[in-house]
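Researcher: Next entry in the queue.
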Amino acid sequence: MSEHQMPTGRAASEAAKAAVRKQSELEVLVRARYPLIYVVTWEEQRLLRQVADIATRLDKKLFEWSITTGLVAGGTSIQSQKQRDSATQDPLVALDSVIESVEPALYVFKDFHPFLRGQNMSVVRRLREIAASMKNTYKTIVMVSPMFEMPPEMEKDLTVLDFDLPREKELAVLLGRVIDEVKDNPKLDVQTDARTREQIIHALLGLTLAEAENVLAKTLVRNRSLGPDSVEVIHGEKKQIIRKSGLLEYYDAQENIDAVGGLDALKNWLLRRAVAFTDEARAFGLPAPKGVLLLGVQGCGKSLMAKAISMAWQLPLLRFDVGRVFGSLVGSSEHNIRRAIQVAESVAPVVLWLDEIDKAFRGSRSSGGNTDGGTSARVFGTFLTWLSEKTKPVFVVSTANDVSALPPELLRKGRFDEIFFVDLPSTAERKDIFRVHLGRRKLDASRFDLDVLAAKSSGYSGAEIEEAVVSSLFDMFYEKQEMTTESLVRGIGQTVPLSKTMSEDMESLREWARGRARPATSPELATDGGMTSRKLEL
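Model: Structure for this entry, 538 residues:
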């Protein structure tokens, strides 16, 4: 750049700020001469590439250490046996070599965490001595491991850094490279439009680069193409990640949103937010939706709607069983809730389903968790903080039946985007529910008098209507007769609805929801059984 092209004044200042922003957090720590940096990541090779780039920019040498190779020059292949120094396989000898060296360098110690636990006090002590002696040198030790081990003695000497999983830009580069490598293969169709590429890249979020490359190869072998079907293959790969965690369950949702009878206001709200996970929405300034809390009567479709959201938005559905969080060891429950959150965020965008959250966190209310030493309160507090502050696109769907058991902190604005009340289905909704369940059993709904069935099932929940259909189907199969409106009416009469046995509790729930929650059914359809009606006469 010539002298007259050099940025001056404000332009120079902006250019300098832009250059600083481009630096990774790791490079900032190296430039600041932090002596010991601990990077927690599964992506060792990706981190090594970044460290090599930093070493090149700062004109430093690069060395790598592992228990199998000892201390070797950076980039030495595993086949290069001549470069191996067997003496430095001992971690103390390797650390001594770092101290003795006088040239500016970066040292990457791989899987060093086993030497930071138990009785390895000599290693811990040597690291503390290195931390004190290297602060005025141009040498840095970067320890990389998928596991985190922090001896108490090193809390003030060690800097811990999380190495983020690849984002959209890096995954887009990977996808482009894979397409370029196979585009000339006549057996493969890799012609993709911008929308399909965006869907594939979003589905790959949460995978390491190695996992992403593997699953792209898998979908090419299976489908012979890169298209919308690739998203299902990628979600299958994420299923393996969830299964390994042991805290979350990957739920294979098969329910379409059209299979949920009624709840038109809730459906419309959800469909308007289906586009919020796209790049176009982010460019428009839309944040990813946080979640929704579904309160209401048992058996009226709350859990079914959680499954349908996953299908409608084409996102993985994770079921979070809070019971798995509470472990027997002191402190393990708090660790488990943080681990479950990390796993959910690592595979985002995703739908996280907490069924019957009122039962899950019942112990955190009133007594402050005194019955379990405060564990429930601490776990609940961690979850609440995450709900308010999360930035990753994890859409939380929580369902609850007992409002009195819900902590008030959960209901305040900012935790969820909206709170919906799901009431007993109205006449129009009951007709829709009968139509859905008859169609699911391969029966033509037009052959039945849906007006009569809806009238006879006043006060019934969706689950009770389904049970009436199934019960009648059993009877007709046994009697070798066809299903009729009359047989369904008999099936309805054999069931006593929950709205009759628990009418006082149900009315109390309605009273609470008025003014506090948004009806899941629009006023036009809620002609009976809904929040706009008087108390049911059953």
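Model: The two ends are 86 Å apart (CA to CA).
Researcher: Noted, moving on.
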